[in-house]
Fold:
Amino acid sequence: MEELRLPALRDHLARLQVDLAGVAIQVDLVRDRLSRFGRPRVLCRPGVREQWSTVKDDLAAGRLSKATAARLLGVSRRSVGRLLATTGELT
Structure:
């Protein structure tokens, strides 16, 4: 009796392994898609990266305030503060 059940169990386990592999692939796809949700980073916005080096230098030299820099870049003062914190300049 056990001899008849063993091949069936092996087939069932093989199908489960294939199913699990498929689920793992789907989980990876969902994870990739979810990582792209939310707002784009400030430096990914059009024109910001190009202007940031000049604005950053002017901020460091004291020629611009964070509010003025934010207006020039088209972002919030808080975004300017985060940019400064991540680039290691001023705080």
Q: What stands out?
A: The longest helix spans residues 2-34. The chain has a mean pLDDT of 82. The helical segments are 2-34, 48-61, 66-73, 77-87. Residues 21 and 88 are 43 Å apart (CA to CA).
